[in-house]
Amino acid sequence: MRLRRFMSLAATLLLTCLASALQAQTAGSAAGGDDLVIAASGRTEAVIVVSPSAGPWEKRAAADLAKYIGLMSGATPALADTPDAIAAAQKAATPVFFVGAEALRAESSLMGRLDRVAKKEPVVRADAILAQRKGNRVFLAGTNDESHYFAVAHLLQAWGCRWYLPTEFGECIPTHTALKVGRLDHAYAPPFEVRHYWLSWNASATVAEEFRRRNFMST
After folding, report:
1. How far is CA 180 from CA 16, 88, 92, 138, 191, in A?
2. Which among 91, 105, 152, 211 has the fewest CB atoms less than 10 Å away?
3. How confident is the model over 128-183, as pLDDT tens digits?
4. Maximum CA pair distance of the chain?
5. What are phi and psi of 97, to 5 degrees?
6. What is the enclosing helix (H) or strand (E) of 103?
7. Is the pLDDT of residue 15 over 90?
8. How far is CA 84 from the centre of its chain?
9. What would the 3-class secondary structure string for 125-145 be?
10. CA 205, CA 173: separation in Å to the nearest integer?
């Protein structure tokens, strides 16, 4: 009986992943021919900018953005996480992702947007995220270290990535011949400050922390 249930679950996840495989995928609404091409035909010139002093989830956000773009498209963007690399990326005409503190530093209006959507007078913490495109730049940031990761997770989900269960078994990452960003201007704050699930005493905690963050669950 347990084996039958396991095989049924595995088949469901496989079919879901196969159904999400597309020729091209655009995050945000179509921009009428002005989509920003992140990767196409196994190649990319995109760069991901993240602060050298990034917090643990902010740093992980940049690394996972590069990882999953690579898995989806076959081309992995470069990371710019040193002062010289960041300065060069800021001058680039190619696609540039600004993650976390570097996004807030590069686009001064973002913090005001986050403050406006964040929950007022929170008891625990006010999480909020913003994903915005301006020209060749894509800004992904939140109100705190974890929220920076939530912003990246939002973009990855817009491209079709899903995490149904912890570990790679429950991971559904589509493959695309092209990844694009269209018109993107998304600011959001969850109504619940605490978002979590409980692990029983004998449950496996393998990559549970990553699974939670990829599904917008808090500490």
Report:
1. 22, 22, 18, 11, 30
2. 91
3. 999 999 999 999 999 999 999 999 999 999 999 999 999 899 999 999 999 999 99
4. 59
5. -95, 130
6. helix 101-106
7. no
8. 25
9. CCCCEEEEEECCEEEEEECCH
10. 22
